[in-house]
Amino acid sequence: MQNGAPILEICDVYKRFGGIEALADCSFSVAEREIVGLIGPNGSGKTTLFNLLVGYMAPDAGRIMFRGEDIVGLRPYQIARKGMARTFQITRIFPQMTVMENLLLPARGANVGEKASELLELVGLSAFAHEYANDLSFGQQRLLSIAQVLMLEPSLVLLDEPAAGVNPAMQHKIIDLVHRLNREGRTFLIVEHNMDLVMNNCRRIVVLNMGRKIAEGAPADIRRDPEVQRAYFGS
Amino acid sequence: MSEPHNVRVPVSARIMGRAVPASGAALLLIYAVLALVAPLIFHASWISLLYLTLYFISLAAAWNFFSGFSGYINFGYVAFIGIGMYAGVIAYVDLKISVIASFIFGGFVSALFAALIGYPILRIRGAYFSIAMLAIAEGARVLAGTEYLEPFTRGGSGIAVLAGDLVLQYYAMLALTAAVVASSMLMARSRFGLSLIAVREDEAAADGMGVNTTIVKLTAFIISAFFAGTAGAIHATFLHYIEPFAAFDIKYTMLPIIMAIFGGLGTVVGPVIGGLFLELVSDYAWLHFGRMNVTLFGLVLMGLVLWMPDGVIVRLKELGLLPKSRMI
Fold first, then answer.
1. What's the rounded mean pLDDT across residues A54-80?
2. Which regions of chain B are under pLDDT 70?
3. pTM, entire model
């Protein structure tokens, strides 16, 4: 199902917190221009993996290759500048900064103001450019956090539960945005608990359970996979 | 509403969009002219009070430059002031450099000190950072009085210095205050300032947004130390005598913090208002209530915490009496 060169290769990544194996020899890769879903029950290691990928912590063992380069040990800002960035499950925009300032912060290079204005237009927040981010609704903050990540011009975007806690109209808006950006050449790795959303929008899905990868494949195969059913329904 | 799209607007203009109105600029001009001609008009005792007010404004603004914007509350600020005092005085007395040069030298030595301690100490966050800085300031005081540094500092007997006169000290402090406030204003509306505010709001998220938080914090820390050290070096000539307990008195950590908070943390004008108002209040209280002055000072602070916890400037912005601009 992979349709291009791998942009991200996760090789035998291992991470332990005290007595708990958060990730055990986890390996998979993401190809350029893919939208990959990463699912698994709570505590399966999805968020830990995201934190390892963007450099918030280092794996105890294993390699993480981004565009052919081992990025283990790099600081988060270095990885962000290389083109891999994440959003957070609970959005972490900067509340005491205006919407526009939130977008200018990660921007680099020329014409950043124009880029920010275009992105605000795209996510429908133009009217709020000079309001404090704190004053936006939850869904709007979600959109802002996605726009903010895009200001980094990332080639790979990691979305942590982009649809959680937002209304269906806003969910559609976010999904449309992802597809649109994907057509423009960006790759996505998405953690999401909404099964329909993952099944309908990702062509490939990776399933984690208790820190191990238990399945990988097309949505239809994942649905039928007995081990996945066991992990989710305990039967 | 936002500016029209597709027009090239510099980043600085997009940070908190609105500029300060002409009335603000006019007011600034009037104050600048008044401050410049003051020594020609007023009696020396008034110049002395004006000088002290400027001293505290520059201290509060330089403290705010780092701590107000980054959220790293520096409880060892007096180390920067005291080191600037000693460096300036020793350079003037022993190395025989000019008075003006000794002021700037004090700033540079303090900045160098900040650069040396900054890398390890800025990895510590929150209350731990504050406590570590407090320990560093106390350590600096003790060190200045020990026999190891006695050849330079003269230990507990201190150093007398006769350099310049009140008018020179006044103009030097005025120039420094203008430099600190202007730098704060430029910083507040630059990407550097934005990065510093992002560190305050959520340091890990700022890191994830491509901000090299180490460099940003260290730069602001060093600049803050430079200004505080320069202020200390100027003030040493005003005092005519320095010794460890006076140079590293924790009072000069606490007062600038209280002044900055009174006016508004992380604002440009806040520390100016705080320094001006609180220095005048404490001077007035000293004059009329003698030893009770601390009580009045305390009452003002209680009122502040109760009614304006975010400071005067932030409150005025909320009430719409001041434009919501990072330049103020």
1. 95
2. 1-13, 16-20
3. 0.90
Pick the closest to residue A138 from A164, A105, A172, A111 (CA basis).
A164
| Domains of chain B with CATH codes | 11-318 (1.10.3470)
Backbone angles phi, psi at A64, to 5 degrees: -125, 110
**Residue matched to tokens 């399966």:** A44
Render pLDDT for A172-225 as a digit per residue (tens, 0 to 9).
888 999 999 999 999 999 999 888 899 999 999 999 999 999 999 999 999 888
Question: What's the token pair of residue B60?
Answer: 């509060």
> Which residue shows structure tokens 């020329």?
A110
The secondary structure of B261-289 as a DSSP string is HHH-TT-SSHHHHHHHHHHHHHHHHHHHH
> Measured between CB atoms, which of A92, A106, A120 is closest to B202?
A92
Angstroms from A79 CA to nearest CA on chain B: 8
Q: Is the CB of B208 less than 8 angstroms away from the CB of A120?
A: no
User: Do the chains contact at B5 and A114, CB–CB below 8 Å?
Assistant: yes
Interface contact A113-B191, CB threshold 8 A: no
ipTM for this prediction: 0.89
Per-residue pLDDT of B19-44, as tens digits, reads 667 777 888 888 888 888 888 888 88
Residue A232, pLDDT score: 82
Residues of A in contact with B196 (CB under 8 A): none
**A83 — contact with chain B (CB < 8 Å)?**
no
> Each residue of A76-122: pLDDT tens digit?
999 999 999 999 888 899 999 999 999 999 988 878 888 999 999 98
Say whether A77 and B202 touch across the interface (CB within 8 A): no
Which residues of chain A are within 8 Å of residue B5 when distances are taken between CB atoms? 114, 117-118, 121
Query: CA-CA distance, A103 to A151, in Å (whole number)?
Result: 6
Interface of B with A (CB under 8 A): 1-2, 5-6, 8-11, 14-18, 191, 194-195, 197-198, 200-202, 204-213
- The distance from CA B191 to its chain's CA centroid, rounded to whole angstroms, is 21
Give kind and range of the element (H or E) at residue A35: strand A35-39
Are B209 and A106 within 8 A, CB to CB? yes
Q: What's the pLDDT at B3? A: 41
| Token code pair at residue A184 | 């423009």
Taking the Cβ of residue A135 and every Cβ of chain B, the question of whether any pair is shorter than 8 Å is answered with: no
- Residue B10 confidence (pLDDT): 60
Nearest to A190 by CA among A35, A1, A33, A17: A35
Q: Can you tell me the distance from the alpha carbon of A187 to that of A207, in angstroms, rounded to the nearest whole number?
A: 18
- Judged by CB atoms closer than 8 Å, whether chains meet at B6 and A114 is answered as yes
Do residues A115 and A169 make contact, with C-beta atoms less than 8 angstroms apart?
no
**Is the dihedral angle over the CA atoms A137, A143, A148, A149 positive or is it negative?**
positive
